[in-house]
Amino acid sequence: MPRPGAYGRRRTSRDGLPPALWLVVARAGALLGLAMAFRLARRLAGPARAAGIGAGLIAAGALVLTPGWFTNVAHGNEAPLAVGLMLWVLRASAGPFWAVSAGLFRTG
Prior knowledge:
Shape: elongated
Structural class: mainly alpha
Largest sheet: none
Order of helices and strands: HHHHHH
Number of helices: 6
Helix content: over 70%
Distance between the termini: 45 Å
Number of domains: 1
C-alpha cells in the first residue's frame, strides 16, 4: 500500500492511522473519477437531458469496467485517484484545449 507524502511521513503511536487515511483519500479519488467521467460525458453529449444522462452512465460504467478498477480501489492504489484528478482538470478546463476536445468527441 503506498504511503505518499504527508500521510506516511509522520510516525505516531497510532501506526495504523496514516494507511487508513490514505485508503480514504484513494477511495474518495475513485469516486471523484466516476463522478467526473459522468459529468464530462454529460457535457459532451449536448443539451439533451436524456442523451447527457445516458452518456454519463456509459462513461462511468466504462470506467468501472476497466480491467483492475476494483482491485486498484480496494488496495488503495493511486491510479483511480489520478484518473479522478485528470478528469476533474479536463472538466474544469474552459480554454482552447476544451474547445478542441469537444470538437473531436462531439457527434451530430
